[in-house]
Design a protein that fits this description.
The complex is a heterodimer of chains A (243) and B (200). Chain A has 243 residues and is an alpha/beta fold. Chain A has helices at residues 15-28, 48-53, 68-84, 99-115, 129-142, 172-183, 191-198, 202-214, 239-242, and strands at residues 2-3, 34-40, 57-64, 87-92, 119-123, 146-149, 156-158, 218-223, 226-234. In chain A, α7 (191-198) crosses α8 (202-214). The chains are: A alpha/beta (243), B alpha/beta (200).
């Protein structure tokens, strides 16, 4: 029996008891059902190899554009899934020209399935460049294993992505500060006001702000009304990191 | 860049730069779009990749970033070329922790954390596991091998758990013993794991 068992954590015990408990947790963890996500263009062949190769496949969720050829490909994928007895949800992305919008939509679906306890996979081979890039972005941010399918050989190739969310590159406190700034993007906060709002000392806030600035997550801008004041703002796109 | 330099031009207008490096497939360098770009940017440096092989493109772009990072900050515009090349550029930006933009047509900054590279996702004890793990190995032997490199037993156990959480090792019960084996994705990260700094 093989189990990835990544949900388990060692319990705080000592010596061999700890190790035994640790291993048993992994080995007894039931293998969850898998939901396969995919992006689909004009060729169903870009998605079918992943449907075939996914073990314990419960459902296929795929995104496609409103182009007639893409709708044809959708019908073929649905037919294939029906023949296998697998449920399939096709989602037509009407505005497939806005990267952040498409990524936000895909990420909401991914999070919903993950919250339901499913194991996730993503095939990013098909669809428009923007749709595929949005899917890759979600896989990076959410730590979803992703594959693409070679155009000629139809061989599935795994992408080097870890099963950890990209936001873990920030500490919990840094995430709190960034989340607050993203939620209040339309308001102006100085470091002192930020410290007061989040209930931390201003020296502590200064440390977090410097760290976030070094990582490019926020910028400090001069207040047009008072050049001595520095306003802290999240950089564009950071809502995807903490949203 | 693909055959149309118009994917590159918005990035040139938006992003200040000292040097421009163009990553593209062989056919692009024969295109009229490239010749026009070369006229605009005589100091243009080029890197040739297979634009239909994501693994090759990813490795080439990562190596290019590492070389360029020695001379200053690096920014990536991931808007031209094949879909695979774009995805490779996005992935490389996240793995190397460099600023990335997607300009098609409006510029969108991707949420990359500057300086947070893939190697930072691994601890020294996880690096020690990578050195000891070449195939299926008994769990207790792996812990002992990591401990022999100066790590506490608890640290070794935690590192194995962490690698499992990242999807890089799997467990298998074989006749009463527990085996740890590298997952199929482990090979994709072996270089990064080996590059992790050793224990101080």
């Amino acid at each position: 029996m093989v189990s990835t068992g990544f949900r388990m954590r060692p319990q705080r015990r000592s010596g061999s008891t700890e190790e035994t408990s640790y291993r048993q947790d992994w080995l007894t963890a039931a293998s969850p059902m898998t939901v396969l996500f995919g992006t689909l263009g004009w060729r169903p062949q870009s998605l079918l190899p992943s449907i075939r190769s996914t073990e314990d496949l419960e459902r296929v969720v795929f995104y496609h554009s409103d182009h007639a050829k893409s709708r044809d490909a959708r019908s073929k994928v649905m037919e294939f899934c029906r023949a296998l007895g697998v449920t399939a949800n096709a989602i037509e992305v009407s505005d497939a020209f806005d990267l952040l919008h498409v990524a936000g939509q895909i990420r909401a679906d991914v999070r919903k399935e993950r919250a339901a306890g499913a194991d996730l996979r993503f095939n990013i081979a098909g669809g428009t460049r923007l749709m595929s890039s949005a899917a890759l972005l979600v896989c990076i941010l959410e730590g979803v294993p992703a594959t693409y399918v070679h155009d000629e050989t139809y061989q599935e190739i795994a992408l080097p992505l870890l099963r950890i969310s990209y936001g873990q590159g920030l500490t919990a406190k840094q995430r709190d500060v960034l989340s607050f700034l993203v939620r209040n993007r339309d308001k102006d906060f100085t470091e002192t006001a930020l410290a007061k709002s989040l209930g931390v000392h201003k020296a502590t806030m200064n440390h977090h702000v410097r760290e976030l600035e070094a990582k490019g997550a926020i910028t400090r801008l001069s207040d047009p009304a008072d050049a001595r004041r520095l306003i802290v703002k999240p950089t564009p796109g950071m809502e995807l990191l903490v949203g | 860049m693909g055959f149309d330099e118009r994917h590159v031009l918005p990035s040139l207008r938006l992003m200040p730069y000292d040097r421009l490096v163009l990553v593209a497939g062989r056919e692009t360098f024969r295109s009229s779009g490239f010749r026009r770009l070369k006229v605009l940017e005589p100091g243009l440096r080029t890197v040739r990749v297979d634009p239909f092989d994501l693994t090759d493109a990813l490795e080439s772009i990562r190596a290019t970033i590492r070389r360029a990072a020695g001379d200053g900050a690096v920014r990536i515009s991931a808007s031209g070329g094949t879909k695979i090349l774009t995805n490779a550029a996005i992935l490389a930006a996240f793995q190397e922790g460099v600023e990335a933009w997607y300009c098609d047509p409006d510029p969108v900054r991707l949420p990359v954390l500057r300086g947070v590279s893939l190697a930072a996702a691994f601890s020294p004890s996880e690096g020690a596991i990578a050195l000891a793990l070449h195939g299926p190995i008994r769990h207790d032997r792996l812990v002992a091998a990591v401990a022999a490199r100066g790590f506490a037993r608890r640290t070794a156990l935690g590192a194995i758990g962490s690698l499992a959480a990242k999807g890089l090792v799997e467990f298998e019960r074989d006749d009463g013993t527990v085996l740890v084996r590298p997952s199929p994705r482990f090979a994709l990260f072996r270089d990064q794991l080996r590059a992790v700094p050793k224990k101080a």
